[in-house]
Amino acid sequence: MYILGLESSCDETSAAVIYTDTEKNINKILSNIVASSVNEHALYGGVVPEIASRAHIEAISNVTYAALNEAGVSLSEIGCIAVTSRPGLIGSLLVGVNFAKSLAYANGIPLVSVHHIKGHIAANYLSDNPPKPPFFAFVVSGGHTSLIDVKSYDDMETVGVTRDDAIGEAFDKAGRVLGLSYPCGADMDKLAYEGDVDAIKFPLAAIKDDSLDFSFSGLKTAVINYVNRMTMKGEEINRADVAASFTKTVCDSVIKKTEMAYERYKFKKLVLSGGVAANSHLRRVLSEFCEKNGISFYCPPISLCGDNGAMIVAQGKYEYLNGNFETTALNGKASEQVCPNRVNSCE
User: Fold this and answer.
1) Buried-most residue among 167, 262, 280, 299 (CB within 10 A)?
2) Which residue range(s) make up the domain with 275?
3) What pLDDT is recorded for position 339?
4) What is the pLDDT of residues 192-210, one digit of tens each?
5) What is the CATH number for 37?
6) Exposure on the CB side of residue 124, measured as CA atoms within 13 A
7) Do the beta carbons of residue 267 and residue 135 sit within 8 Å?
8) Which residues of the chain have pLDDT under 50?
């Protein structure tokens, strides 16, 4: 079966077509088109919701038909349409959801909705060595930081979250105060290799309790205050040292809570997902942690770390197999966790 996936939860408009064969466990990406409005948002140092939703409106149709053309597949051959419906920027979500509903209804194609976080996790199912549940997942992006106990392809429980800023947001805001261009993740990654990781002491983002939660707001503020204080004194700021010390603190925070999660759940597989999964320092420390403890470590190709339609198809496949079909009553939802019991999350 061919599945069309649509993603529009933030500032990327994406459509992908994947050929899937459940019996032979085949998932072949035929196309994965991504249109980003990042250049427009860079003028403001972050995503502007209104600009993002307008960009989705302009791009959604062209991106979808470009994905179909690249895959060499017509709409009549599509067996299912999967679309991100939650969580995300509500204006952006509504563009994708309404377009998907219209396309599905007009062509008599089954429609399934996908939780954005589940989509990020499912990106790993498209790798050469896909993990099979059960496993533990760490989802890190510009809008999310979550530790998730994945019991099956559709049964998941959020056991740890950020209580304020997401890890990707902290990277962007720390990078911006250092004068880096938005988005700052890639430049922060490179700059950190040039500095001294022990040059500056920043506070850990791991909450000091027995929870598996994070708080990146304090760490972000500490970096901003440090730079402002040095500027007021007229002292030179070693940007590489700041980036290196900040990155090490982020990694130490992640490892601290991952160690606590391992002691509690004794998982045998750890999956890293989301846009910040592209960070080489984070990949390295988690890989070393897993190797030390005999845990299998998985992370998607860099091309599938950010928001994309292929990951929505990867999870949509299981929504389809479980019969979780939607009607034209489907709506977007800005805030919803994988596990609804964790009401303290900003997700």
Assistant:
1) 167
2) 133-299
3) 56
4) 999 999 999 999 999 999 9
5) 3.30.420.40
6) 26
7) yes
8) 340-347
